[in-house]
Design brief:
about 80 residues; alpha+beta; Alpha-Beta Plaits; two-stranded antiparallel ribbon; two-stranded antiparallel sheet; 4 strands; globular
């Protein structure tokens, strides 16, 4: 599973940066189209859910995002 941040919804609150126990996110350095410094997935391989086969374990980032900007995709979907 791979973490995806939808920049159409992210407002740069960085809650995901602070709440992630594995420090998978970091504050973004570039402005999004909406004018926010959106968070970025800086260390996807350290995420609890990275090598899971459709079974999400942690999801603290997804549950805490006030804008529902974080989602999960199977790595096969991204290769298509």
């Amino acid at each position: 599973m791979r973490t995806v941040i939808d920049l159409k919804y992210c407002k740069g609150c960085n809650i995901c940066v602070y709440i992630c126990p594995k420090k998978c996110y970091s504050k973004g350095a570039d402005l999004s189209e909406r004018g926010y410094f959106a968070a970025v997935v800086s260390s996807p391989e350290s995420c609890y859910n990275h090598k899971r086969e459709g079974k999400l374990i942690c999801e603290l980032c997804t549950l805490s995002c006030p804008d529902q900007a974080i989602s999960w995709k199977a790595e096969e979907e991204e290769k298509k």
